[in-house]
Amino acid sequence: MSAPGGEWRRLDGRTVLVTAMVLAGFAFGAGLPVLLGLAGGMPLGKALGWVLAGAALLVGAGTGADLVRWQRTRYRIGSERAELHTGLVLVKRRSLARERIRSVDLTANVLLRVLGLVKVRIGTGEHAAGGESTLELDAVSRAEGERLRLELLARTTSREAAAHPDGALAVLDPAWIRYAPVSFVAPLLGGAAAGAVMQVSEWFGAQAEVIEWVGDRFRDTPLVWIIVTLAAAALVAGVVGAVGLWIEMWWNYRLEREPGGTLRVRRGLFTSRSISIEERRLRGVDLVEPLGVRLFGAARVDAVATGLVKDQQDKHADINVLLPAVPRALADEVAAQVLRESASPTREAVLTPHPRAARGRRLRWALGAVLLPSALLALLGALLTPVLLWIAAACAAVGVPVAVLLALDAYRALGHGIAGDYLVTRSGTVRRSTVALQRTGVIGWTARRSVFQRRAGLITLTATTAAGAGAYGVHDAAEGEGLTFASEAVPGLLEPFLERD
What we know:
Layout: H1 14-39, H2 44-71, E1 74-77, E2 81-86, E3 92-97, E4 103-108, H3 110-114, E5 117-123, E6 134-141, H4 142-152, H5 159-162, E7 167-171, H6 185-203, H7 207-217, H8 223-250, E8 254-258, E9 262-267, E10 272-278, E11 282-290, H9 291-295, E12 298-305, E13 321-327, H10 328-339, H11 345-348, H12 356-383, H13 386-413, E14 415-419, E15 422-427, E16 431-438, E17 442-448, H14 451-456, E18 458-465, E19 471-478, H15 479-489
Antiparallel strand pairs: 1-2, 2-3, 4-5, 4-10, 5-6, 7-8, 8-9, 9-10, 11-12, 11-16, 12-13, 14-15, 15-16, 17-18, 18-19
Helix pairs in contact: 1-2, 6-8, 12-13
């Protein structure tokens, strides 16, 4: 007999209604241009009849298939395993041991939220082919989703967890939205908006008219001002898009610690997301400062934890992000609370600067990245057209100072140190990253020296861990200093491979 609470259950029947509504919307979106196309060659009533018949067939077939899926899907949460059975022709029976379950995430788009449903994703945190390490219940009621989350993540509260109060660690401050326009998303969305205008106009056969209209607006305007104006318009569109995307992703944000030692992030305006991370899987934090955000004194906090597998179906599900871009002081404060420390290691650690040879390497890389393409353009200009010579000169004139500034900033960012139970490493300029990693979470060191590094007396050390990105580097440190740091950070791990004077 099944244990109490281990009976077989069905998904919520309203999931079939969600499928029907989605298919109806798709049929409307696809049917309207088809109707306009058919109306040009036959009577409107006949064209409408064909379109409605096709839409009814699509909606009926899709809804019927989903009804069969719903009838053939069962799940059960037993005392030892979580099981899911589904399929008609190809029957799938999958189960996860409850002791291996590490995450229960809830997601609901607009339709699911209106109907009070959520999609539940149960995972073990392992990377397996074919999604064998996850079970997805699409969809159940919100109350059932919360029950599953609490039941599957229930853990015995440790003494350490009991010594720290549970509750909210951070909640949304609308003032944080000011960092959205300075992220890298804004220019990307601006370029995407310009491309979308051209693509849509091509679909409707009006691309030439759009180009002509733009040309009429700038008929007597110099080329430079045309480029500047169009770039500014694209940037404004990108800023608006970045703000909208930020609101959709982070509205209703709340980071809290739940009884039993679980960190829970809830966020989302239209699509709500609930992501849970067990603290026993937490190995540290990553303080991320993209260039634009850093110029305004802000940073975000990412979790360095084991078992975080990104949902490939949800591109916005950054499951390792604990805190969006906020003032740097607040980011350090939240990082300390997440780690249960009095002060964040990312702020308290005294970082050792790297030798000047590391600065030279970055300057050479930066100048090479600018001068080599400029030299190629100049060569082509000498062979083909003088226009390329002007372009090459402009690229060099603008790119060299920017490259030098970024290289010097990248050098100043380099540093490593030890703060209590954590080793800290910092690097990057376009995306500066300060990682505080538990020393007990390091399972190996990789030492790498290129020919040029050996001549300069430099070494790159990479701490290997099962959490987060899997590897965190100390780039271009002084050889002796770097090896001493690695030896002191994790005693006994590197000693068998060291030769001491």
